[in-house]
């Protein structure tokens, strides 16, 4: 900083290092727990197999999503059952805690 | 028996090769017989940073494939005694390295050197995994920046699971944190992660802090490891790190903002 800086309008940006640290702590903690989301494709495949025993169902009718918020993850399964099952959309939400 | 050190980071461009050149030169300057191996097959640069690019005849892959002997491929450093460089191949890809081949070369070097420094390529693929596989020590080079810290954490996980020491259930690889491109003034303004922020996340011992420095580019421009520039801040910081590695107690520098004198304050002079 030179003397000239004292005359410039002060537009001091918010300290971003603290934000960086917080974001890092969260992501690193998640990643250390092993690649949690790795089982999702297999889960989807096996769900399809199980449901397929009862109803004819296509691969794209099962949707698996994982959302992380704070210290808790929400695993959301969206299974669209075909017309014959009367209920076109059934939703299950399974909550897991880390 | 030599001690094997890997210089690693996960992320590219954080200063692995600069550190490999400086650290291996530093060990040799302290009288240790040292060889530095470039594992970045296809993108070799250690030779360039160390000013040996015009003396490369045979390379690491030639030795692995039995096309040259180790002594033919090793380049003796012109400036520092006790220092040899084993360059990477520029024409092959990373799959040219095999575990058996690397093991054979390292075993042969073991009897002749005190330290074997492995300059890892970026990423977590074959070249990087082989560079860290035989390590006794790992120097994890990290910039005070989110992607670099995250990748360093990933590399620490790999060291703890995929190194030879981990696989054989031996004592784990000794990990050291080396923070490069550090700007105390930006840390003070809250714009940059501090040493203690990074330490809180990675939780491994701090080997040293290399300040952001013009000397680093000057050094690579001229093909002289920055540690040879003893007047420079970065050169001094690397020498401190080498001394600490060798067991000396050296106080950390470059973490705190140094007080400027009245002229520097008035005119905003840079160090």
% residues in beta strands of chain B: 15-25%
What characterizes the major β-sheet of chain A?
A: 3 strands, antiparallel
Q: Which structural category do the helix and sheet elements of chain A fall into?
A: alpha+beta
Largest interface: A-B, 21 and 21 residues
Rg measurement of chain B, Å: 18 Å
Would you identify the regions of chain B where 5 or more consecutive residues have pLDDT less than 50?
none
The H-and-E topology of chain A, N to C, reads as: HHEEE
Rg over CA atoms of chain A: 23 Å
Question: Which descriptors apply to this entry?
Answer:
heterodimer, A: 98 residues, 27% strand, elongated, B: 271 residues, 13 helices
Can you offer a commentary on this structure?
The complex is a heterodimer of chains A (98) and B (271). Chain A contains two helices and three strands. Chain A has 98 residues and is α+β, with helices and mostly antiparallel strands. Chain A has a three-stranded antiparallel sheet, with helices on one face. The two termini of chain A are 46 Å apart. Chain B has 271 residues and is α/β, with parallel strands linked by helices. Chain B is 40% helix and 16% strand. Chain B is built from 13 helices and eight strands. Chain B has helices at 16-29, 46-49, 60-64, 70-73, 99-110, 126-133, 146-162, 164-167, 184-188, 195-202, 214-222, 233-245, 262-267; strands at 3-8, 34-38, 75-76, 83-86, 115-119, 137-142, 174-182, 206-211. An eight-stranded mixed sheet of chain B has the order 3-4-2-5-1-6-7-8, with helices on both faces. In chain B, helix 1 crosses helix 12 (233-245). The longest helix of chain B is centred in the middle third of the chain and has 17 residues, at 146-162. The mean pLDDT of chain B is 94. Chain A binds chain B through residues 1-5, 12-18, 20-21, 23-25, 27-28, 31-32, and chain B through 145-146, 149-150, 153-154, 157, 187, 189-194, 197, 200-201, 265-268.
